[in-house]
Design brief:
The chain has about 625 residues and is mainly beta. It has a 14-stranded parallel β-sheet with strand order 4-7-10-13-16-18-21-24-27-30-33-36-38-40. The protein has a 13-stranded parallel β-sheet with strand order 1-2-5-8-11-14-17-20-23-26-28-31-34. Strands 42, 43, 44, 45, 46 and 47 form a 6-stranded antiparallel β-sheet that branches. Strand 46 and strand 47 (about 535-545) form a beta hairpin. It is globular.
Length: about 625
């Protein structure tokens, strides 16, 4: 009886093991799909020599973890894969072009009222395709419905209602896609490039999002499911029919860095409502837009720093019905109305270069009470406001409020000269409030050019480079160089506009997102003056010693089944309080392997089960808000 019992237990474990959804790299198969002109036929076995015909069939007949490669027929380039239904991806798959050197195959839906790709599983990857045809209302080239950790890279997504639509989907990565000319006129015709709806912790990096019918990138949420902590870096968002980038209802803590949002019909970047707060808008270029470079209407407590906003039809930066925003070290130049428009609200304006705008440099209206500089040392305005309004009024106070604008640089040095270029209560017939200011003293203007700090630190997948200048004389721009060798082979990675001539302190920030783990990077900073003379400053370095994860992830233990020791690996995107525990099938905690705060990186933990009986166990990780668990089999 004991032998039967042992055998029965063994069979139970083996049968259960095969029933578990455990997929390793060795289990994954590569499937092939080709147009009929290349021998594609769904009666084939799906091999490279005998490929299937349609992607829908390939997805249906593949297993989770498989790779589906799409061959391309150059002679049938517009509709290599003309699918009669959406491609419903309900398992973990990678769908990609045949190889990196092959032409991107066209994937086209004949049913325009459906998405081209409907993603209904986590960890789906789509690489190197041309995706088109979903022109029906709210249909998308790629639609992700409440799924996570998907990757979409190097795709051309055109002629859909939405290019990419993430709905309640998190931790997805979209890199180097061309999402342009999505111009459907179905319904209200609100066709957009990329829509993130109630979606958080997603990354958009290096995408080109041009000439879409309405907004290039639209981020919004609901009170129950806000969109938070998305990172939009290095994207080109130009010539869209409405806005370049919008941060709409119930959005917070999103970061926009080093994007170019030019020549859009309305604004380059627009924060639209009071429930859109605490965003970081850093080092973007927003120029030649039909209204504002950067507009904030009702959103609060945002940081707008280091942006260049030039030659917009109306204003460089627009704030109205909004408070608590920090507008720091931006360039607002040559806009066709105001450099900065300040409507109702209390906001901090520091260290900006505001010059050569057609009308006033700064225009204050609608009971606005901005802080343009305090009287105390360390609370200076540090704004450079010059050559606006054809040299007449640099600041216009159209409110009854008293405005504090101490220690800004107005070009002029005498009190009366500055006052003559500020419109306030002492103008003839004016009923406006006064503007309180103090001129720079002579010794303020003779400060030497001085770089007081240059630092590099790693955070959330990028190296943040910061430097501070106490003053600048004839500075046109700064150059950043990078190498993996301290002495040689430096390549220029960025050019950042300088402040010209200013005695004020300025803070600069630039994000390097093109980094690899286990690498030491060396950075050099230089300034280039208006005569072309380049001067180099000190070099800084940073060593990325660990593998830098792109996401939180819990791996399948190895080996599995095991006796008695197995390894459990996991990745942390950010520093977190981590607990990793083992449970039996009754839900009872067997032991805790990890319970402490850990920094971002990759970890491996050994589990020794020598005191436990054979059976199925569950291991669970919680790292901040990230929770995941997997099964493993102990077989003694």
């Amino acid at each position: 009886m004991k032998k039967i019992s042992v055998l029965t237990g063994f069979l139970f474990i083996v049968i259960t093991l095969f029933a578990l959804p455990i997929f390793t790299e060795a289990d994954a198969a590569t499937r092939y799909v080709a147009p009929s002109s290349m021998g594609g036929n769904n009666a084939n076995p799906g091999t490279e020599e005998s490929p299937w015909r349609t992607i829908v069939y390939a997805v249906s007949n593949s297993n989770s973890g498989d790779i589906i490669k799409l061959m391309d027929d150059a002679d049938n380039s517009t509709k290599d894969y003309s699918e009669t239904d959406w491609v419903f991806v309900n398992k973990q798959l990678t769908i990609e072009r045949y190889d990196d050197d092959a032409t991107k195959p066209w994937v086209y839906t004949q049913v325009h009222s459906k998405h081209v790709f409907y993603i209904a599983a986590d960890y789906v990857t789509i690489i190197g395709l041309k995706i088109t045809g979903a022109t029906g209302v709210s249909q998308a080239g790629i639609y992700v419905g409440s799924k996570n950790y998907c990757t979409f890279n190097d795709n051309d997504i055109t002629n859909n209602y939405y290019g990419i639509y993430l709905n309640s989907s998190n931790n997805c990565n979209m890199t180097d896609n061309n999402v342009s000319y999505n111009n459907s006129t179905s319904g209200t015709g609100d066709s957009e490039g990329i829509l993130l709806s109630s979606s958080s912790d997603n990354t958009l990096n290096g995408n080109t999002i041009n000439y879409n019918r309405k907004t290039g990138i639209d981020v919004n949420g609901t009170s129950a499911y806000p969109s938070t902590n998305n990172t939009l870096n290095n994207n080109t968002v130009n010539h869209n029919g409405s806005f370049g980038i919008t941060l709409g209802t119930y959005t917070s803590n999103n970061t926009l860095g080093n994007n170019t949002a030019n020549s859009n019909t309305y604004d380059g970047i627009y924060i639209t409502v009071s429930s859109s707060n605490n965003h970081n808008i850093i080092n973007n270029t927003t120029s030649y837009n039909g209204r504002y470079g950067i507009g904030i209407s009702s959103g609060n407590n945002n940081t707008v720093s280091g942006n260049t906003s030039e030659s917009n039809t109306k204003h460089g930066i627009y704030l109205n019905s909004t408070s608590g925003n920090d507008i720091i070290d931006n360039i607002c130049r040559s806009n066709h109305e105001y450099g900065i428009y300040l409507g109702w609200g209390s906001n901090t304006i520091r260290g900006n270069l505001i010059e050569n705008n057609t009308s006033y440099g700064i225009y204050i209206t609608s009971s606005g009470t901005p802080d343009l500089g305090g009287v105390d040392s360390g609370n200076e305005g540090r704004n450079t406001i010059r050559n606006n309004d054809a040299g007449i009024y640099q600041l216009y106070n159209n409110t009854a409020n008293t405005i504090y604008a101490y220690r800004n640089y107005w070009v002029y040095t005498e009190f009366d000269d500055i006052d003559n270029h500020i419109y306030d209560n002492d103008e003839s017939g004016s009923t406006m409030g006064s503007v309180l200011f103090s001129p720079w003293l002579e010794n303020d203007q003779s400060l030497p050019v001085e770089l007081t700090s240059f630092t590099a630190l790693y955070s959330a997948g990028c190296v943040i480079l910061k430097w501070i200048t106490e003053s600048e004389v004839d500075i046109d721009h700064f150059n950043l160089y990078r190498s993996i060798d301290k002495e040689i082979n430096y390549n220029k990675i960025a050019t950042i506009q300088g402040q010209g001539n200013t005695p004020t302190r300025h803070n600069y920030v630039w994000l390097d997102t093109r980094i690899q783990p286990n690498t030491t990077y060396w950075y050099k900073l230089s300034d280039v003056d208006i005569y072309g003379l380049e001067v180099f400053y000190k070099t800084v370095s940073i060593t990325l010693e660990k593998t830098l994860p792109l996401e939180f992830y819990l791996s399948q233990n190895y080996p599995n089944p095991f006796n008695p020791v197995t390894s459990i690996s996991y990745q942390l995107l950010a520093a977190s309080d981590v607990e990793l525990s083992i449970y039996n099938t009754l839900g009872q905690k067997v032991c805790t392997l990890v319970k402490k705060k850990q920094s971002a990186g990759s970890y491996n933990v050994k589990f020794d089960s020598q005191d436990l009986p054979s059976g199925i166990y569950i291991y669970k990780i919680q790292a901040g808000e990230f929770v995941d668990f997997k099964k493993m089999v102990l077989m003694k």
